[in-house]
Amino acid sequence: MDEYTFGMLLGVLIGIAIGVSIGIAIGKKQKPWSELTDEEKKLRKIVIGAGVIILLIGFFVNLWLFFKW
Length: 69
Prior knowledge:
Helix content is 81%, strand content 0%. It has 69 residues and is mostly helical.
């Protein structure tokens, strides 16, 4: 296994571990969707949308770097 593949695999595993731990820490303090106000629902939708966009950008940059390598 070359160093690029090993680094990418290690980065993905670290990212998953950090994401799960942050999700658990933040998730304990959240209210159920039915108890949120309209403003809180709108804010949560924006945050989720921004997270998905950032995830997709990271995925495509990773693919671009992989095939450029």
